[in-house]
Amino acid sequence: MKWVRTCAAFAALSCLVACGAEPAPQAQAPSSPEAIPARPALASLDIERLRTLAAEALRGQRTYAPAGDNAVEYYLALRDKAPGEATVANALQELQPYVLIAAEQAMAGGELSEAQRLLDLLARVDAQAPALPRLRAGLDAARAAQSQRLAELQAEDQRLAQQRATALANAANKPAAPASVAPVSSAPASAAPAASAAPAPPPVATVPAPAPAPVEPIAIAAAPPAPRRDEAAARPLPRLISDSAPRYPLSALNRRIEGSVQIAFVIQPDGSVTAVRLLSSTPPGVFDEAALAAVSRWRFEAGGQRVPTSRTLSFRLPKG
Question: What is the pTM of this model?
Answer without folding.
Answer: 0.43
